[in-house]
């Protein structure tokens, strides 16, 4: 099984240095793309590979690049931004890629920048990722020193530099238009779309925002071809995917696997199944803002389309497992507390609705829920659904809630009927008893 | 007044951004690096230096979780309170930290050694529960092992 994105990564050895990376064939794809491939051809290759964005939304990468206005009279400069904000709870894959092989990301960015003819690149990194920052700073300096960044990249007519920007912390910064405001030194509230960033983005100029993992796929597509990339996958969405599992499984971690690997294989095989004494209850498959899946879904293939058909989203592909001794209401309460805290406050339904949800869930968890609270929560999920708020944050926040209400209805009702949380490890809604193991 | 060094560091970022005001967040972070936090005076000084009103700067400063507008201790403990860590018992870890330090989340110890702040997912979910002390990431926390981890931070 091929693992192009992670085969060179060994975190015990620290980040891969430029020499080792080049020894394994690194930067050949970027050199070829920049020196021998017209931008249009690079875009076509990525389009044909079927690469879809790994940041959560799954948009076709090549198609997005194609939206940037081309030609000599198109606005300049243009920007390429790597979204390395990774604040989606339960998600830890981009950190691994940046700490393990920073040059792979830089090479992907050089190719992407050439494809859209961007002269300025930014890596928008969350501040807490100190090790990633160190690895990237060193790698950027090494690439600059080698002439792969800066004036005339690889001795060509193309010039591009990449600057590392560390954020000041706020989940909404990961939303691409909020990210643009953050990079402009403003409050990170999302912008109205259209216009979309490929046309009017950073400082009003054409801008492409791509996730770390997306960009890490690019050198491999250029070097081995779009057909090869497609055949890495078990389904129609191309490539491999980095899947992660956390929660009470035996072996939490990350694995690069073919896109379309069955959910069961990831949880029971790679993650080793549940820890002794715990049973599988459900899973949030792609980070905090995706719908729960349950036992009946264990055999679905993990690709964008299949997970969507099952009623959830592949999202970031890093999943959080719910076990039978953890309270689902408590878990959703934790998630909604996060969303209430991180709402940017720009639009009223989200700013006021999510704290209301949080309070309702807190009351239920503490045994003070009322029978009509369940209908109230259902109502919120409708009012904060797609198209009702200024950005995708609030609909995302509703995904774990609406699916918990569906699959764990009994649990909600029991809390209310009994006037307490039936999971003794959460009686106060507060401590979560490590005393179980 | 911003020190010469702070001004130099802020100026060094200028070529990377199209507008001077885009430096606002970088400037606040530089000030915080030197002083540990961002005081009202610092907000005013950054504004003056970048051509922004103190109000404009403060509206940015207060938006972000990691710009401290209040004084913090010598070491900041960011303990993750997001979902994977919650499933694996971060509440008990946080309770234990409060007990050891004698403070509540958001507070600073009397000796100004530690400030305890909850933080969203640290990207260490496979080693949940996790916390960040200054720049060091610590995972697989239990109520029993956190006290020893704090010893090295004096
Ligand atoms: C609230 C919110 C948070 C997001 N956070 C991130 C993030 O941390 N990293 C990321 O790559 N994409 C994030 N996204 C998705 C981005 O808006 C954008 O779709 C993505 O960066 C595009 O890259 P891709 O096409 O390569 O996936 C977030 C979206 C929303 C609505
Ligand atoms: S939905 Fe929430 S996060 Fe998005 S703009 Fe509205 S308030 Fe901000
Ligand atoms: S949820 Fe705590 S590190 Fe991810």
CA-atom Rg of chain B in angstroms: 18 Å
Number of domains of chain A: 3
Distance between the termini of chain A: 35 Å
Overall pLDDT confidence of chain A: 95
What is the average of the pLDDT values of chain B?
97
Précis, in short:
Chain A is built from 17 helices and 8 strands. By secondary structure, chain A is an alpha/beta fold. The model of chain A is unreliable at 426-437 (pLDDT under 50).
Structure description:
The complex is a heterodimer of chains A (437) and B (154). Chain A has helices at residues 18-23, 28-36, 39-49, 61-66, 93-100, 102-116, 130-145, 176-183, 212-224, 226-231, 263-270, 304-309, 328-342, 348-365, 373-383, 393-407, 409-418, and strands spanning 79-84, 120-125, 161-166, 207-211, 240-246, 253-258, 280-284, 318-323. Chain A has 437 residues and is α/β, with parallel strands linked by helices. Chain A folds into 3 domains: 5-231, Rossmann fold (3-Layer(aba) Sandwich); 240-323, Roll (Ubiquitin-like (UB roll)); 328-418, de novo design (two linked rop proteins). In chain A, a hairpin with a 6-residue loop joins β5 (240-246) and β6 (253-258). By secondary structure, chain B is an alpha+beta fold. Chain B folds into 2 domains: 4-63, Arc Repressor Mutant, subunit A, CATH 1.10.10; 75-150, Glutaredoxin, CATH 3.40.30. Chain B is 41% helix and 12% strand. In chain B, strands 2-1-3-4 form a 4-stranded mixed sheet, with helices on one face. In chain B, a hairpin with a 2-residue loop joins β3 (131-133) and β4 (136-138). In chain B, α1 packs antiparallel against α2 and α2 packs across α3. FE2/S2 (inorganic) cluster (FES) binds at residues 80, 82-85, 121-125, 128, 130 of chain B.
């Amino acid at each position: 099984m091929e693992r192009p994105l992670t085969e060179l990564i060994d975190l015990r050895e620290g980040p891969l240095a430029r020499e080792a990376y080049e020894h394994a064939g690194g930067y050949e794809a970027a050199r070829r793309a920049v020196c021998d491939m017209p931008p249009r051809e690079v875009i076509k290759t990525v389009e044909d590979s079927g690469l879809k964005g790994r940041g959560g939304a799954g948009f076709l990468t090549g198609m997005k690049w194609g939206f940037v206005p081309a030609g000599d009279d198109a606005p300049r400069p243009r920007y390429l931004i790597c979204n390395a904000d990774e604040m989606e709870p339960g998600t830890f894959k981009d950190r691994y890629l940046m700490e393990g092989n920073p040059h792979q990301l830089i090479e992907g960015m050089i190719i992407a920048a050439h494809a859209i003819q961007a002269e300025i690149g930014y890596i928008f990194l969350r501040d807490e990722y100190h090790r990633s920052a160190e690895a990237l700073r060193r790698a950027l300096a090494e690439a600059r020193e080698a002439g792969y960044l800066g004036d005339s990249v690889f001795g060509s007519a193309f010039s591009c530099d990449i600057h590392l920007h560390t954020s000041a912390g706020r989940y909404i910064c990961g939303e691409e238009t909020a990210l643009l405001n953050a990079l402009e030194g403003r409050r990170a509230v999302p912008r109205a779309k259209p216009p979309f960033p490929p046309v009017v983005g950073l400082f009003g100029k054409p801008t492409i925002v791509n996730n770390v993992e997306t960009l890490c796929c690019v050198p491999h597509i250029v070097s081995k071809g779009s057909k090869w990339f497609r055949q890495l996958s078990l389904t129609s969405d191309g490539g491999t995917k980095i899947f992660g599992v956390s929660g009470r499984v035996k072996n939490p971690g990350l694995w690069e696997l073919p896109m379309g690997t069955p959910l069961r294989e990831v949880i029971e095989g790679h993650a080793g199944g549940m820890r002794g004494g715990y049973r599988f209850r459900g899973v949030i498959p792609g980070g905090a803002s995706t719908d729960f899946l349950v036992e009946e879904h264990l055999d679905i293939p993990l690709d964008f389309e299949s997970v969507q058909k099952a009623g959830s989203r592949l999202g970031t592909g890093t999943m959080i497992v719910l076990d039978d001794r953890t309270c689902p209401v408590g878990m959703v309460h934790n998630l909604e507390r996060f969303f209430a805290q991180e709402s940017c406050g720009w639009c009223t339904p989200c700013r006021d609705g999510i704290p209301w949800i949080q309070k309702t869930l807190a009351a239920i968890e503490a045994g003070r829920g009322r029978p009509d609270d369940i209908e109230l929560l259902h109502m919120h999920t409708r009012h904060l659904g797609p198209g009702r708020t200024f950005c995708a944050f609030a609909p995302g926040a509703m995904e774990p809630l609406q699916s918990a209400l569906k699959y764990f209805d009994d649990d909600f009702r029991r809390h209310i009927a009994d006037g307490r949380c039936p999971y003794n490890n959460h009686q106060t809604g507060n401590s979560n008893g490590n005393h179980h193991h | 007044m911003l020190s010469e060094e702070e001004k130099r560091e802020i100026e060094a970022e200028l070529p990377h951004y199209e507008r001077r005001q885009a430096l606002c967040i970088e400037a606040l972070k530089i000030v915080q690096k030197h002083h540990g936090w961002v005081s009202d005076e610092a907000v005013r000084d950054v504004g003056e230096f970048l051509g922004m009103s103190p109000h404009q700067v403060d509206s940015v400063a207060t938006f972000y979780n990691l710009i401290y507008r209040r004084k913090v201790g010598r070491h900041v403990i960011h303990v993750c309170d997001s979902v994977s860590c919650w499933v694996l018992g971060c509440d008990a870890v946080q309770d234990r930290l409060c007990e050891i330090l004698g403070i509540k989340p958001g507070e600073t110890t009397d000796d100004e050694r530690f400030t305890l702040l909850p933080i969203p997912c640290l990207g260490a979910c496979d080693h949940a529960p996790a916390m960040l002390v200054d720049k060091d990431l610590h995972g697989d926390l239990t109520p029993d092992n956190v006290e020893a981890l704090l010893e090295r931070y004096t």
